[in-house]
Specification:
Oligomer: homodimer
Strand order of the largest sheet of chain A: 1-8-3-6
Strand content of chain A: 25-35%
Shape of chain A: globular
CATH architecture of the largest domain in chain A: Sandwich
Structural class of chain A: alpha+beta
CATH topology of the largest domain in chain A: Jelly Rolls
Amino acid sequence: MTRHPIYSLEFFSGIPESILTSIASDSQLRTAVRNQQVITKGSLGDELFFLIKGRLQVIDVTEDGRELCIYIINEGEYFGELAVIDGGSRSTSVVSIGDAELMVMSRHTALQLIYSHPILAERLMKKLAYLVRLSSQNRAMLSIQNPYQRICTVLTTLIRTLPGNLKIIELPPQQSLAGMTNCSRETVSRAIGQLLNAGIAEKDRKTLIVREPERLQHIVQGKITTE
Amino acid sequence: MTRHPIYSLEFFSGIPESILTSIASDSQLRTAVRNQQVITKGSLGDELFFLIKGRLQVIDVTEDGRELCIYIINEGEYFGELAVIDGGSRSTSVVSIGDAELMVMSRHTALQLIYSHPILAERLMKKLAYLVRLSSQNRAMLSIQNPYQRICTVLTTLIRTLPGNLKIIELPPQQSLAGMTNCSRETVSRAIGQLLNAGIAEKDRKTLIVREPERLQHIVQGKITTE
């Protein structure tokens, strides 16, 4: 028998197994396919989501109808917490990049859990603080005039360090990177090409292996002038 | 003897007076003058601030050196919570618009309070959720092409309803409105002039009295075409 995914979610680490078992039976497991909308901006929502498998993009629709990908949700992360906390409508849409598996918890269960376990309240607060910081960085990034520098800034935020100090970036779709940085898909493609040509990164399918993170950082800081 | 300002702060409503008395003696009262920087972006900070008197502006400095006013802090509100929650550096600067009085609490005291009173954790979470929503609205606002529509959108978010259903806007400095909406001070001045000419609002010193909130809403929604 496969173990319920709730036991491997970092958000719940430290919570007694008996409590997790009872939450697990209260929660639903769902799947999503490529491009499926998991959350629709503006709708009323009263569920907290945990991403068990796959990758999702958080999308905002601008007033003039463009879709901006704001950030990527990775395996093990949760989302949908704003509406759970304040009972308001969904502030952004969430779309599945490929196939995905989700665990879904009712607002009632989620709030009860959070307010009875200070460690969960603390984790949630830290995540919200992170989101506020992210949007503030995002504002600063979008104010950079040079699109190549904007793209490198976003790529830097996506770096993950693997054991052995290998730094990789799981590339979001180019269309998403274009949306995040407010430039065209062609510019994104050219910027990545330049990083490869300069030997700053290597590409392995959809992953960038960052060979020279410091040079990437220099581009972000505007120390290296580019196109 | 004047009562300590802590007893009138909404954030602490419901917290036993004996606890407030002990926090009050642990906290400092400070003053700030016009244009004084209360928090500096990028600095390390371990204090939570409560604005007792005055008005402050939250300012972000963009990569190319422009100052963007993001929002206004009004009497009775608190700020500086991000660094208190996650121990990181200050994400924005805070500058006093005029003379101001502040109550300042150490990070240690603030965290102890928050984690031992779920109602405070809940209030803080709701505020953080509000900040995330605000930045998301901000992104949507900045994507509007027409500057007049952007200015009206920001003005709408500043409306306060007084007893008797009177709707007013305490105008931030024009330079701040210009920063918030990414347009020139002249454009802000012209936009406000148009609202007065059209009878949508009246001006009383630094306060706009909104006579026709629905027409203002129509401009925000792009239903009325303007310059």
